[in-house]
Amino acid sequence: MKSLRIVFQFGLLIGLGIAIPGLPTTAQSTSPNQAQPPAPGLQKLTGDDARRAEELDKAIEAAQKADRWDEATARAGELLGLRTRVQGPKHFETVSEEWRLKTLRRVAPMPHEDRVAYQSANTMNEQANTLNAQGKYAAAQPLFEKALEIRRRLLTDDHPDTARSYNNLAYNLNAHGKYLEARNRWLLAVKSLDKARLRVAFTGLERAGGTKESMRPALAAVLTRQGEPAGAWQALEEGLGRGLLDELAARQDRRLAPAERARLRELTTEMERLDKLVETTPQGLDQAERAKRFEDLKRQRELASIALGELQTKLVRDHGPLAGQVARLNEIQAALPADAALVAWVDLPPIGPNAADPDGEHWGVVVRSRGIPAWVPIPGTGPDGLWTKDDTGSQIGSAQRCGDGPVAARRICIP
């Protein structure tokens, strides 16, 4: 998946490429001789570190499946230490590993039947992905739905795994043409994702890890299909630079009174305290006592979460959003000269064969200084406008003149 934002004026494209993790990145205009070392946030494990990480990852999965949660937690702690040491504490893979460790610690003290249910959700998700890849979307749907139900019950909605389950179900529904249902699930996925992002860290850049932002481009595509062009644009715009916007807002925020800041810290600390209690189990408790303790802590956490949510609502009402603000459409249009436009496009390959739209989602959008954003389907260069491998692999550099890119881009760049 790729989403790119481009401002062009007098035929010149100035591009900012945003690539979803795990997929090809946008081509750079820097020559090999000018290539810079990777940024700390992009540092990958190599050599012995990479091999050890792979071994630990397999050991964690094996221990989970065998219901050896202490072993799984220990191995996850070792892997987190490795990533922290080599990649740094703010690297997205480090933050993701920290989330996994927290989740394992949370699940470990649960009653046996809940631990089994949690593991079954992972298994059902894997089975459903396999069915999707075979084009058996109707068979995959109930598995995704059951996995989502389990994760909501055990992990709540403010967890990355729950957000991913909403996302998986939405992609499945979209693949067999249930676009309205897919739209509704993606809206819930984004809501869950935002809750998870705010729980990752108090400041912004750390929030960029732990949750892979691939939901808003998909939401934009399905909103376009549903005839909601302005909402589609806003969904796409909200996915760009969220961590940086949050970080800038946190550094510049001087609006909170000392008492408000202290109360926010108090409730945040209480949530962290309860999470740690959920993740640990005192010695000497039998299964019934562990189950009762878990339910008691779960209720306390729900009350603390409600209190924190009410405080945040009040602070937003009194001071405005505490997170970074995403520009609204009217603000963007007010900043655009009459002879300029903002151009973006979204590419979502099909998740499997025999999808309702076998070509996936390929949309371009043009935002001018006035009017509703214009979304148009981007045809490929194959027969009947289908996309080919060459089309999918095409990349646009960070500075090209309109018309120098792939055929699909040339059709969008006409002023």
Provide a descriptive summary of the structure in words.
With 415 residues, the chain is of the alpha+beta class. Among the domains are: 2-27 and 327-412, no CATH class; 256-279 and 286-319. Helix content is 57%, strand content 9%. It is built from 15 helices and 6 strands. Strands 5-4-3-1-2-6 form a 6-stranded antiparallel sheet, with helices on one face. The radius of gyration is 23 Å and the shape is globular. The model is unreliable at 1-41, 201-211 and 395-415 (pLDDT under 50).
Helices and strands in order, then pairings?
Blueprint: E1 2-9, E2 12-19, H1 47-65, H2 69-87, H3 92-107, H4 112-133, H5 137-155, H6 160-175, H7 179-200, H8 215-225, H9 229-238, H10 242-252, H11 258-278, H12 287-319, H13 329-335, E3 340-348, E4 361-367, E5 374-377, H14 389-393, E6 399-401, H15 407-412
Antiparallel strand pairs: 1-2, 1-3, 2-6, 3-4, 4-5
Helix pairs in contact: 1-2, 2-3, 4-5, 5-6, 6-7, 7-8, 8-9, 11-12
Compact summary:
By secondary structure, the protein is of the alpha+beta class.
Class from helix and strand fractions: alpha+beta
One letter per element, helices H and strands E, the order comes to EEHHHHHHHHHHHHHEEEHEH
**So how many helices?**
15
Rg (CA only): 23 Å
Mass-distribution shape: globular
DSSP summary, beta strand count: 6
Oligomer kind: single chain
N-C termini distance: 26 Å
Classify the beta-strand content into a percent band.
5-15%
**Percentage of residues assigned to helices:** 55-70%
Name the average pLDDT.
76
Major sheet, described briefly? 6 strands, antiparallel
Spans with pLDDT under 50 lasting ≥5 residues?
1-41, 201-211, 395-415
Strand order of the largest sheet: 5-4-3-1-2-6
